[in-house]
Amino acid sequence: MGQRLKPHEEFHFGREYRGDIYALADDASELRRLGIELGRFNADWACFEDCRLSLLAMEGLTALGGKYLTDLSPTVPARYN
After folding, report:
1. 78 and 17 in contact (C-beta within 8 Å)?
2. How far apart are CA 26 and CA 39, in angstroms?
3. Distance between CA atoms of 41 and 6, rounded to whole angstroms?
4. Are 19 and 56 in contact (CB under 8 A)?
5. β-strand partners of 48
6. How far is CA 65 from CA 5, 7, 27, in A?
7. Which side of the chain, N or C, has fewer Cβ within a 10 Å radius?
8. Residue 2 in contact with residue 20, Cβ under 8 Å?
9. Nearest to 39 by CA among 54, 26, 50
10. Model's pTM, two decimal places?
11. Which tens digits make up the pLDDT trace of 29-38?
12. Three-state secondary structure along 11-53?
């Protein structure tokens, strides 16, 4: 299913993250306050699909200490390639 967030030792400037965040629909406001662009909510899996996170949003999510399970992957925007 998902994985617990682990603090990353190497956050790269300009890196973005994309993927799923397993949470309840009621958690949307907390996640948005972190700066997360939420995707569609899948009630069957209790997750927000195809979310986008900036480096700052990822750091805020990591600081919650594993409150949410995630399936996120780093992406490098085209403007940094």
Report:
1. no
2. 14
3. 24
4. no
5. 21, 41
6. 7, 9, 15
7. C
8. yes
9. 50
10. 0.77
11. 999 999 999 9
12. CCCCCEEEEEEECCHHHHHHHHHCCCECCCEECCCCEEEEEEE
Long-range residue pairs from 4-9, CB within 8 A, at least 24 positions apart, any chain = 4/66, 4/69, 4/70, 5/61, 5/62, 5/64, 5/66, 5/68, 5/70, 6/62, 7/62, 8/62
Poorest-confidence range of 12-16, 32-36, 42-46?
12-16
23's tokens: 């949470």
Residue 19 forms beta bridges with which residues? 51, 72
For residue 15, the model assigns a pLDDT of 80
- Amino acid symbol at 70: T
